[in-house]
Write a structure and sequence with these properties.
Helix 6 links the parallel strand 4 and strand 5. The chain has 235 residues and is α/β, with parallel strands linked by helices. The relative contact order is 0.16. A five-stranded mixed sheet has the order 3-2-1-4-5, sandwiched between helices. The protein starts with 7 loop residues before the first helix and ends with a helix. 50% of the residues lie in helices and 15% in strands. It is globular.
Length: 235
């Protein structure tokens, strides 16, 4: 795509990345959108006569997805007030970390947060982050996690309108199923080398997943393909 009309924040990043824009965007999108490792991408580019080291692709992804996430959140479609909340395991430097995620009853992603621990403090950080951008829900469905329930009880104590809490596992199937789309992409990555890289790459995966679910509502984007909506983040 042409360089004119690029988001100034993206342009600022690109000044330090001396490579054709089309190649960089293709690599960072494929890495996030499909179950590929960095070395897979290196080999795929080599087959096309393009020499790109796998570590270079990772550097592009780390820099660009920080900007893309900020842009996406400005145009994220509103979600419902009935939330399903759960956490899944993500391996970082041979240690399991926790990805908190929430979807509404229609399956739209509400928010996500990678944490080092799974406890009340981590749950509180996730709930506050989700509510900052999406408002306070009317109802939250979760599993039997005592930490998550304790976090919601604390939030209810702080608000006049109490959030209804359901701790019924089968009602949470929708978010558990939604985890699979994220794990399908992370599995070939064979774990992350640092918490920072995991946080940024997971944000990219979540954003592409939300785009595929029709959650990008920038004017004119509704008639674009998933890949075209990704490129709209650059502008």
């Amino acid at each position: 795509m042409p360089n004119n009309g690029i988001n100034p924040e993206v342009a600022k990043v690109l000044k330090r990345l001396h490579y054709p824009l089309e190649i960089m965007l293709m690599c960072v999108r494929w890495y996030i959108a499909y179950p590929l490792s960095l070395r897979h991408l290196e080999q795929m580019m080599a087959e096309r006569g393009i020499a790109v080291d796998h570590s270079t692709v990772h550097r592009w992804a780390m820099k660009l997805w920080l900007v893309f996430e900020k842009k996406f959140r400005k145009f994220k479609r509103p979600v419902g007030t009935s939330w399903r909340i759960d956490e899944t395991y993500i391996k970082v430097k041979d240690t399991w970390k926790y990805l908190y995620r929430a979807v509404d009853k229609e399956g739209r992603t509400i928010d996500f947060l990678l944490t080092a621990k799974r406890d009340k403090s981590a749950a509180m950080r996730f709930f506050r982050k989700a509510m900052l951008d999406n408002g306070v829900p009317e109802k939250v469905t979760m599993d039997k996690s005592g930490a998550n329930k304790s976090a919601i009880d604390t939030i209810n104590f702080e608000h006049e309108n109490a959030i209804i809490v359901h701790q019924i596992k089968y009602l949470n199937n929708i978010v558990e199923q939604d985890h699979r789309a994220i794990k399908r992409i992370t599995k070939p990555m064979l774990g992350f080398k640092s918490f920072c890289s995991a946080r940024v790459i997971l944000a990219g995966i979540e954003i592409m997943h939300m785009i595929s679910k029709g959650q990008f509502c920038m004017s004119g984007a509704e008639n674009l393909s998933v890949s075209q909506q990704f490129y709209a983040l650059v502008g």
